[in-house]
Amino acid sequence: QVQLVESGGGLVQPGGSLRLSCTTSGIIFGAYVMGWYRQAPGKQRELVATINSSGSTNYADSVKGRFTISRDNAKNTVYLQMNSLKSEDTAGYSCNAHHPVWRTNYWGQGTQVTVSS
Length: 117
Fold this sequence. Notes:
Shape: globular
Oligomer: single chain
Number of helices: 0
Helix content: under 10%
Largest sheet: 7 strands, mixed
């Protein structure tokens, strides 16, 4: 049973911060590239950030300098620290686990982030 469970979403004012968590089970966590994606109403899903097993990261240009992705292999968990939030960050955020050898993908159920005054 593979499970990815996100938490930490909610309503926050512009300029505020949130930390999202994604806890996994049923996978060999260290073998997977972990990522965060988001989809806003009327827009296509976009990649926010990824982190591989050694800690190398990639970010979308729109979040560079504001968001930080990290992972705790002992806890099988990936995080997304979001600072200086903007209304444009409002979206459903989903956690993804990608196995680069077997070319499999697992997804969490998503968590809503709303940035509004």
